[in-house]
């Protein structure tokens, strides 16, 4: 399972960084004030810095992706571990595997997956609003959302909205 998490991180984090760089006015993730520091892009997702080297329009909100490489700690200093529950559910479509492998609590499982689906839906809607018609990326994201939503509904015995 750790290999799947690492593989997902290796794919998702650079894609997320490129997406965020595209949102910047100058299409760069690093603010001009920090361009001379030769910071590596993969080191930019640190939350414990006084002044962030990332452009000011960026907000490193970990709720956008189910897996990020943040070294976050809770209020007691314990490391917060992220896992690829969203990817695992998409592949296996099994609530039981989410309990046994990803160690999600039954009480949190529906809410975590529902929140992830809501993020997928907002991303798909937003991308369709700004992309040209029949944009392949927008269509792909909409297809991912539709497939994920149908798997979610079937796993939890729900009827899909039309």
UniProtKB/TrEMBL annotation:
GO terms for cellular component: cytoplasm. Keywords: ATP-binding, Helicase, Hydrolase, Nucleotide-binding. One of its GO terms (molecular function) is hydrolase activity. This is Uncharacterized protein.
């Amino acid at each position: 399972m750790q290999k799947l998490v690492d593989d997902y991180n290796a794919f998702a984090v650079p894609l997320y960084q490129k997406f965020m760089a595209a949102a910047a006015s100058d299409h760069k993730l690093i603010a001009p004030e920090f361009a001379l520091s030769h910071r590596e892009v993969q080191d930019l997702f640190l939350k414990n810095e006084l002044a962030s080297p990332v452009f000011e329009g960026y907000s490193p909100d970990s709720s956008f992706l189910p897996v990020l490489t943040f070294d976050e700690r809770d209020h007691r200093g314990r490391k917060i571990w992220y896992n690829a529950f969203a990817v695992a559910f998409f592949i296996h479509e099994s609530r039981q595997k989410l309990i046994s492998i990803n160690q999600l609590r039954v009480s949190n499982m529906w809410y975590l997956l529902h929140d992830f689906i809501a993020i997928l839906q907002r991303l798909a809607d937003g991308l369709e609003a700004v992309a040209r018609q029949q944009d392949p990326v927008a269509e792909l994201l909409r297809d991912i959302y539709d497939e994920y939503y149908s798997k979610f509904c079937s796993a939890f015995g729900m009827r899909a909205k039309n």
